[in-house]
Specification:
Helix 3 packs across helix 5 and helix 5 packs antiparallel against helix 6. This protein is mostly helical. The chain has 8 helices and no strands.
């Protein structure tokens, strides 16, 4: 494990709510309960915003796959914050194979894509054609 992974995991465990973990893990039968830390989305989004502003997020985006569900959601929230369409698309392409549950899929929507619907459509069609559930 490198330093950025260690830092992220420590931060996520500081935000842990075990009762929420148990509840949320039960909603995701495709995810091992041990892979769920139990961080509520508003807290995770707040951390993602702060981490993105720090500029250190780019090294985290290079790390795939992640061990924890919340690391994947953090990854998604960081991509959402990217304002350059090409960069957000490239990061999305790298990340999509690692989305393995409905909750991460549902929370992931890069904002910059809204301004590039026509050029994004061929990518969406290709993604849909993979046969992958998420």
């Amino acid at each position: 494990m490198n330093e950025i992974e260690k830092y992220i995991q420590e931060k996520l465990f500081e935000l842990q709510d075990e009762k929420y973990r148990d509840f949320h893990a039960a909603l995701m039968p495709t995810i091992d309960k041990e892979a769920v830390i139990g961080v509520r989305s508003p807290q995770l989004k707040k951390f993602a915003k702060e981490f993105y502003k720090s500029g250190d997020y780019e090294s985290f985006l290079k790390i795939l796959p992640h061990k924890y569900y919340e690391e994947n959601n953090l990854h998604a929230f960081l991509i959402e914050a990217i304002r350059d369409y090409g960069t957000a698309l490239a990061e999305t392409e790298k990340f999509l194979p690692y989305i393995d549950n409905w909750a991460t899929c549902d929370c992931f929507c890069p904002k910059v894509f809204a301004k590039h619907k026509a050029e994004l459509l061929p990518h969406i069609r290709r993604w849909l054609g993979t046969g992958e559930t998420y």
